[in-house]
Amino acid sequence: MNTSRFTAGEPAVEITRVEPGLWHALDDGRVTGRAETTTRPDGRVFLSVDAWHRSVFDQLAHAMLAALPEPLHTVVDETDDETLAAWRQAGFTIRRREWEYAVPTDPRVTGPARPVTIVPAEADPLRELDRVVRAEVDATVGWAEMPAEVLVRPPDDPAKYAVAVEDGEYVGLIRVAQVTRLPRIGLVAVRADRRRRGIARALLADALGVLHRAGIETASAEVKETNEAATALFDGIGARRTNSTLELVRHGR
């Protein structure tokens, strides 16, 4: 159990909305906590609160909830018991769990993949593949079930992507993002009519190989626990689960 997330004591603070999506907790003019909102591409609004004292956390959360329309979301490390309890007390419930993976890049660990033509992406055919993939998502699970890395808007930088090509068409794509100290596998997607042919594994093997040749031994990825295909893909290349995060939601009342 994480017992050091909040310190003891209940300082008297004043909550001030500094900007439309930013609140400060002030103790004699000194900022002792802050809260902010992030709107993801699919329109979901996520909250975050940074405070040393639980009472300050509660006051900031209360101010946000009073000012914002629901539903509202937040993400918590599953091992952070105190923060999880604080959000639950504020009326949030668990919506989904995502596994965090450490993904090896060494091809001797990840194993062989089916030969597939993988090339750097070009803007126009990449946008067309993105349009097809987004339409398939809209027609099936919907964007609310997709992780944050799956962008609703079309890709604006083809250099961030590699694509799989069959019969002269783009049939799958991968994006690797350098968002932390570890590169993150942000997205692997294959057209519905080309799945179960090893294309996703080939895309992953290619991206990991590029990282390995650059001297990077490990990448990271997040997979929704109920996504059996993605779980099997990462388990099959020797990735190991290192942690899990919970998405919480508070629905309108």
UniProtKB/TrEMBL annotation:
Keywords on record: Acyltransferase, Transferase
Start and end residues of each N-acetyltransferase domain: 116-253
Lineage: Bacteria, Bacillati, Actinomycetota, Actinomycetes, Pseudonocardiales
Gene3D superfamilies: 3.40.630.30
Protein transport found in the keyword field: no
InterPro entries: Acyl_CoA_acyltransferase, Bact_Acetyltransf, GNAT_dom
Protein name, UniProt field: GNAT family N-acetyltransferase
Listed PANTHER family: AMINOALKYLPHOSPHONATE N-ACETYLTRANSFERASE-RELATED-RELATED (PTHR43877)
Domain of life (superkingdom): Bacteria
PROSITE patterns: GNAT
Transferase among keywords: yes
